[in-house]
């Protein structure tokens, strides 16, 4: 099979949390997270994504967060900076700044709220790709953005040199199959629990939420699937399934994830409004899930 554009981002990418303390970004805890991920063997870190509460970051915080991650990483793993926006001009500004700071690639979420036409999606991503020299990963997540980037639009985007990847979070295996079968883009799962099904039809990895908590297990799942060891891949999938579901199902991401991190003694601090703490019944379900998984919990949420 010919090598796909963006294939050097195959494997586990982790959408990292933005830790907050007293209303400010906690860069000490950020460093701890990064070192944990690097030590675990994660391929790529994705700061300032949904999991990083990017909609609550000021422009200055957004720029500095990405810069700090790049400096801490210091070339040891890849950094795919979350620099998308519902404003093309703002996406360009954020992406140019990240590229100047040394980001390896950019994650570009579909413009949200304004719900552009398919031509609007095409022109938006085209403008970003043509004005920066780092690879672009198109992030298709209609559940967050209100509208889906259709396969035909992604096929058109695949013809633009700088667009090399798609983070596919539509929840549709058919969509993944169509993209893999008709383009040379690298497809990355945007849903932890769909990583194995998507890799079975040609996706090459995942941009993970659960990887913040259990990166080694996510790496083992991806590796087994890539090597064709389906027995091991299925075993890992079923082990991870309930945990992955709860990371996204008990409440809006990253609410359950931040609760889980606190429970296991790796507290990543407070949430920023309008995100609020996990309610007690859901917190107890999460604690039970962690315990069933074999993760010891220490702190009460």
UniProtKB/TrEMBL annotation:
It holds the Pfam family DHDPS. The active site is at 139 (proton donor/acceptor), 167 (schiff-base intermediate with substrate). Its EC number is 4.3.3.7. PANTHER family: 4-HYDROXY-2-OXOGLUTARATE ALDOLASE, MITOCHONDRIAL (PTHR12128:SF66), DIHYDRODIPICOLINATE SYNTHASE (PTHR12128). Homotetramer; dimer of dimers. It is found in: Cytoplasm. Belongs to the DapA family. This is 4-hydroxy-tetrahydrodipicolinate synthase. One of its GO terms (molecular function) is 4-hydroxy-tetrahydrodipicolinate synthase activity. Pathway: Amino-acid biosynthesis; L-lysine biosynthesis via DAP pathway; (S)-tetrahydrodipicolinate from L-aspartate: step 3/4. One of its GO terms (cellular component) is cytosol. It catalyses: L-aspartate 4-semialdehyde + pyruvate = (2S,4S)-4-hydroxy-2,3,4,5-tetrahydrodipicolinate + H2O + H(+). One of its GO terms (biological process) is lysine biosynthetic process via diaminopimelate. Pyruvate binds at residues 51, 207. The record marks 50, 113 as: Part of a proton relay during catalysis. It is an enzyme of class 4 (lyase). It comes from the Bacteria. Keywords: Amino-acid biosynthesis, Cytoplasm, Diaminopimelate biosynthesis, Lyase, Lysine biosynthesis, Schiff base. InterPro entries: Aldolase_TIM (IPR013785), DapA (IPR005263), DapA-like (IPR002220). Catalyzes the condensation of (S)-aspartate-beta-semialdehyde [(S)-ASA] and pyruvate to 4-hydroxy-tetrahydrodipicolinate (HTPA).
